[in-house]
Amino acid sequence: MHRLRPWLVILVFAAFISGSQGRAVAQTVSEQQILVDRARSTIEQFTAQSDMEQMRRILKKARAVVIFPQILKAGFIIGGEGGSGVLLAHDRQTGAWTAPSFYTLGSGSIGLQIGAEVAQVVLLIMTDKALNAVINNQVKLGADATIAVGPMGKGVEAATTTALNADIYSFAATQGLFAGLSLAGSVIKARNEWNRDYYGQPVTAGDIVIRRQVEAPAAAPLDQALTRAEL
Q: What's the CA gap between 42 and 60, in Å, rounded?
């Protein structure tokens, strides 16, 4: 009986190590979840800004929202923009937001550009036409969908309209050497590989935000932040 005790100790120790490793894996935060959490932070920051009241009023009427926590624009003669974000559709009858689908935004431009700029960008998709285009295709802003620009940051107002006749409204908080951030010509494209990694199965943007085939409990704080942001 005494001879079995060392083996028992070894088995208990092995189980402890295995459990610890399992917890370590479970505690690892994915790139996708980090982006979701940063999207929540972006919405909370926008909500706290008095000059983003217009965004909050339009948000309630929006068909969907795309949140880019960081768009980097940098260049000398040749410039470009790029960043990753999440799209959530909005049920305007129930007020519920869907699970997030992952997207990238990018463009290239040529001009006399010197400096670098980082921006947080929120796109409000106002029409079914624009939402379907974003879900089903690679969309070029200003060409495949009309885009209007809202406030670019505290104390800065860009041309806009209160008629809500654009397909998409853009709101951004910017810093850096560029005077503003124009998204005309930018391309929005789905990141299906990130959707697969986040949900553990192959799913498209349509599966997530239209057919609602998956749920994302870890994205609940983002859903709640969007609901609180509506005016």
A: 17
